[in-house]
Design goal:
Elements (H helix, E strand, L loop, with lengths): L1 E5 L6 E6 L4 E3 L5 E3 L6 H6 L2 E6 L8 E3 L4 E3 L4 E4 L1 E3 L2 H21 L8 H20 L10 H10 L3 H35 L3 H16 L2
Parallel strand pairs: 5-8
Antiparallel strand pairs: 1-2, 1-5, 3-4, 6-9, 7-8
């Protein structure tokens, strides 16, 4: 339990809330040993009152007010719970959803500078290579540098590598669609939320969906 000294004239805290000292010197110069063991009535008579926080259901929806309020009836200072700004909560929720979407993608697709462009280039090369085969044309291998390099690195023929990349792209598209649906659905729900509780519920639903991908 925290305590604070009270100014009897202004009913304001003197200094900061603290645990009771073991020894206290009164304004008259008397020293009291075992001060922290005195009963509440004695402490109040010496100008010390408990400091408490107002109980809140969800700490994310509220913060504690910076200025304590003196509750004369209960002889204590109370730091009231103040509702957090809804726009701030929504901004935080949107950022959390975007990060969760990025994390979901990273669990399945290699991340890194330029990696997405390399994926796209490989997919385009594979599609063009297989289209040429399907049309009975002989592909010019110089037109497929990514496929050639990856086929050599993986010990595959370029035909096999093209089919592997094409199959992988199908999985990437399905994965990306699922991530984007959860991400945009969550952010849309956050935007529509009218209360802090609804905002957090929309965020948590989106995060759970993304975590499951």
């Amino acid at each position: 339990m925290l305590y604070a000294q009270i100014n009897p004239d202004t009913l304001q805290m003197i200094g900061r809330a603290q645990t009771l000292p073991q020894r206290f010197t009164t304004a008259g110069g008397a020293t009291i040993n075992g001060f922290d063991t005195l009963p509440q009535a004695a402490l109040f008579g010496l100008g010390w009152v408990p400091v408490v926080y107002e109980t809140i259901g969800n700490p994310e929806t509220h913060r504690h007010g910076l200025a304590p309020v003196y509750d004369g009836e209960n002889r204590r200072f109370v730091f009231p719970a103040v509702a957090r700004d809804l726009d701030t909560l929504k901004a935080e929720a949107r950022a959390a959803i975007d990060q969760a979407a990025s994390d979901a993608s990273a669990r399945h697709i290699t991340q890194g500078v330029g990696q997405e462009s390399r994926y796209l280039a490989k997919a385009e090369e594979a599609a063009a290579y297989l289209r040429a085969l399907a049309e009975g044309r002989t592909p010019d291998l110089d037109d497929y540098p990514f496929l050639q390099a990856e086929a050599t690195a993986c010990g595959r023929t370029i035909d096999a590598q093209a089919r592997y990349v094409a199959d992988t792209r199908v999985r990437w598209v399905a994965l990306g669609a699922a991530v984007e649906a959860a991400r945009m659905g969550g952010k849309t729900a956050v935007a529509a939320a009218e209360t802090a509780e609804a905002t957090l519920a929309a965020r948590d639903t989106a995060l759970a969906a993304l975590e499951a991908i």
